[in-house]
Design brief:
The chain is built from 3 helices and 15 strands. It is an alpha+beta fold. It has one domain (8-267): Umud Fragment, subunit A. It is globular.
């Protein structure tokens, strides 16, 4: 009888230790996810060529300080940011969609508070100066099995940040159309001038003609992004795999050939 009681106590002790280990592991994971790094994946092509569908990346949570959106489920514990700092122009950042404050978006920050931005004939102007872009040939984009050939440029933002963008059209035909008024008829390649309010930033996708971003000010568009909505800065790709809706999920022998090995551990710029 004594032996069986001792065995029961040992069993209870093992279960207690296992539970404590699981609790500690969860707390550590939540802490790392909240304070240091959080993984994200890319489901759409709005940031091609910088980010591809099927990319998996780490976002640094400390880069811009912490808001309620830094924590799982965004609990309303406080307003604003703690240890907050503005992004640098050119950062690729994750933020909560301002219309619902819950959906994760990832775009490039091109405008800071007080900046004047406008797109004219497909060219981005910041504070009255065109962001220079140099042609780099063509880029074949594949999204959900659809193949599109786009023009590729290297764009240089004020401050010297260089990154690649894609363009399908520059909207020249609209800009030259008699009677075209960008203040009444919206064209993402020929926009009105935007003035970024205090405590907000302006975000755009690198795949310029296939990105819903801050150019869209309607009730379903991104518009200006509150600094409070920033989740963190995209830092490094840790995995990437080609995605095709026609692929059979059970064909595991094809998986190694779908991995984009050259993108693994690639810094994001």
């Amino acid at each position: 009888m004594a032996t069986s009681k001792a065995a029961a106590k040992r069993k209870q002790g093992v279960w207690a230790e296992n539970i404590k280990t699981i609790v500690y592991a969860v707390l550590i994971a939540v802490g790392v996810r909240t304070v240091l790094f959080e993984p994200f994946n890319i489901p759409s092509g709005s940031m091609i060529p910088t980010l591809l569908v099927g990319d998996y990346l780490f976002v640094s949570k400390y880069s811009y300080g912490y808001s309620k959106y830094s924590m799982p489920f965004s609990p309303p514990l406080f307003h604003g940011r703690i240890f907050g700092s503005l992004p640098h122009r050119g950062d690729v950042a994750v933020f909560k969609f301002p219309r619902d404050n819950s959906t994760d978006y990832i775009k490039r920050i091109v405008g800071l508070p007080g900046d004047h931005l406008q797109v004219k004939q497909g060219v981005l102007y910041i504070n009255g100066e065109a962001a220079p872009r140099a042609p780099e040939g063509t880029f074949i984009a594949r999204d959900q099995g659809i193949r599109t050939e786009l023009r590729r440029y290297q764009e240089t933002l004020p401050g010297g940040v260089k990154h690649d963008i894609l363009k399908a059209t520059d909207g020249v035909e609209n800009a030259r159309r008699p009677g075209f008024d960008p203040t009444r008829e919206f064209d993402p390649n020929n926009t009105p001038e935007y003035v970024v309010p205090a405590d907000h930033v302006f975000a755009m996708g690198d795949n310029r003609d296939m990105s819903s971003d801050s150019r869209f000010m309607n009730s379903s568009g991104v518009g200006f992004v509150p600094v409070e909505n920033l989740v963190g800065r995209a830092e490094i790709l840790f995995f990437s795999i080609e995605s095709d809706p026609n692929d059979a999920w059970w064909a595991f022998w094809e998986w190694p050939f779908k991995i984009r090995w050259s993108r693994l551990l690639k810094p994001i710029h």
